[in-house]
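=== Structure Prediction Worksheet ===
Name of assembly: unnamed complex
Input type: mixed (protein and possibly other molecules)
Chain count: two
Listed entries:
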Amino acid sequence: AIQMTQSPSSLSASVGDRVTITCRASQGIRNDLGWYQQKPGKAPKVLIYFASSLQSGVPSRFSGSGSGTDFTLTISSLQPEDFATYYCLQDYNLWTFGQGTKVEIK
Amino acid sequence: QITLKESGPTLVKPTQTLTLTCTFSGLSLSTRGVGVAWIRQPPGKALEWLALIYWDDDKRYSPSLKNRLTITKDTSRNQVVLTMTNMDPVDTATYYCAHRREVRPYYFDFWGQGTLVTVSS
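=== Predicted Assembly ===
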């Protein structure tokens, strides 16, 4: 089974900060990776698919990069509504989530 | 618009079998490419994919839980059912069903609200 290692598990940041979250796959997964945002008590919603494609309606401050085994989600200027938990999800072979990154207010 | 809703018991005893139903609208499991998945999340922990069933009845299971899971569909009733045997307190979680897009990119675009299942004697 493919393992996804996501880091950090949590981070504290201020509004306006640039935030970077990484995911590493245990084997190459091409660009079959998505990023999801989850707010407390809510279902996740997709932000990025194919590693770097922005889902319709998602603000352009969100971006994704990477291919193969190493992937990054970047929020260029953190906004109050971005405080949430973020997960990567590989769908190259079955599906595996990363452990999540909780973005908290500094 | 696609909607999904999970239903089932909120409390099960250890060793019992859990049966959850995902009832959906706005999609048909007879449409080529459609998939419906089950995903869970223990309180305060990460998401975990469990199983997925495709329009053609092809099924995929999490390797770590494969022996305990069965996923089935009832196309006429617009439902997908997940059974999990031998429940344990560590299986306490919110269980979500989600729609996998039938065309690339194949992400989960619509999710149910989730249902919390507690395993306790």
